[in-house]
Amino acid sequence: MKKLQALLNDLREELERETDDASEAHLAGGTLISSRRLVVAKDRLKPIVDGLLEHQRVLESVEQVRAEELERTRRISQFQAAELHAIIESLPDAVLVATKDAVVLCNSSALRMLGVESLEDLPEEARRGFPFPYRRAATGLPILPEDAPLARALKGETVAEELIHTDPRTGAERIHRSSAAPVVLEGDVLGAVAVDTDITAMVTARMDVEALNAKLDQRVRDRTRELTVAKEALERALAEVEALKERLEAENSYLHFEDDRRYNFGEMVGKSGSLKEVFHSIDAVAPQDTTVLLLGETGTGKSTLARAIHARSARRDHPMVVVNCTSLPGSLIESELFGREKGAFTGAHAQQIGRFELADKGTIFLDEIGDLPWELQAKLLQVLQEKEFCRLGSPQVIKVDVRIIAATNRDLREDLASGRFREDLYYRLSTFPVVIPPLRQRREDIPLLVESAIRKFSRETGKKIENISAATMSKLVNHSWPGNIRELENVIERAVIISQGSTLQVMDTFEALAQEPVAGEIPLKPLVEMERAHIIAALRQTHGRIDGKDGAALILGLNPSTLRGRMRKEGIQRFEWM
Predict the structure, then answer these.
(1) Do residues 162 and 137 lie in contact, with contact meaning Cβ atoms separated by under 8 Å?
(2) % of the chain exceeding 90 in pLDDT
(3) From residue 270, how far is each of 48, 72, 276, 297, 441 by CA, in Å?
């Protein structure tokens, strides 16, 4: 443009000079000079005219390019406007754009919130008043139009707060997060943009979560309180369990249960008259709390009868504690019976519960009572009389409710005479004495005991012993059995172990065990036993014949029916005379 201006200026000056020269020449009458000058002027003007024409062409080209650029810019602007409109329309949030005078743009979400189809449907005053009817979510109080987020943004403020909007179509209240910001150019606020997001579901969910958290917190507090109480109760229970554990561990060493029959056949077996008398006595005394004294030789079943008494008593659901007075060391028997406190004597590193205390509400069985040391007999007598005692090392009196069953294989009357046993204790223990006959005095029970033992040990060893020869049974019946039932049991167990097949084979030599009578001493037997043996001898002599002139009844001077009755009463079996 500057070059074109310079050319125009040159052309103007040249024309002015030529005009002046032509006027001078005309006045002088010089036509030829004027023509020459015009030619010269024409030559001088031609480059200028050409330059102007060229510049005109350039200007036309530039104008064309500018027009094309303006068109392209217009199209881009239209595309961007359409794109922005599409973006705004696609938003689920309500978007409003306003100038300082009125709202000029709303997307579809905003129109729905306003309850109109288009912005033109809003009254003019509504468009100028920034139309959303809001209340503050925090307080519920209504907001004046001039305090609305969009109005505040037009004042240059950036706003972000939660508000309550009432839907004009349904009247439902929705919670919005309203954000608004001013449009600023070179320090001047030209307009503002507001975005409203419906956060009702999110706020409701948040409130639900807060309510659930509060409820959960309360449940946790309640549960914690319950667990604390339960923990305290558990700690108390554990303390009780620990105490019971110690007691049970002590009881485990002493208790004999009803199913422990390894050395006692588990029950007394027999049908002899003498054993029936014992059973009758046991049935009579068992339900009572009377002290019982069991008398009999070793192996006659005193422990079994003691358990039978306990099982038939009202104390059967409580422990039966067994004390073998022979097996306990003399130095420890007092602490074993009555217990001790920690430090009661050297080596007493812990408290020990005595067996009388363990037997509280139950039964204590004092086996081999005749071997109890003299110095402890007085204390035992006190316990029997007063039902109370003190642990070693403690002055505290412990009361117990215990039934006493005592047993011995000794002749306590001889021990009384020799001063080995206290007379007052003897009479206290022998309130109800029961004498258990030895096996040799009830031989009719031996076949039953043998059969019971065979079944027991066959089951334990996995063998199937079903038969026993008459000779073997006779051998067993006629043995004196100084060890009584225990000895018989041991013999049968050994026989079952060595037997091959289904027949019992007894290898014991009983003759070697028989006691020889002292020279000049006639061995005496009970009358019942002698009578039984006499009947068997008569039957053996007659080869089992009872009636007739060669029968056993005639030899014995009895009626045959009477003899048969005696045989049934004594349990005499056929194998005994064969």
Answers:
(1) yes
(2) 12
(3) 162, 129, 8, 17, 12
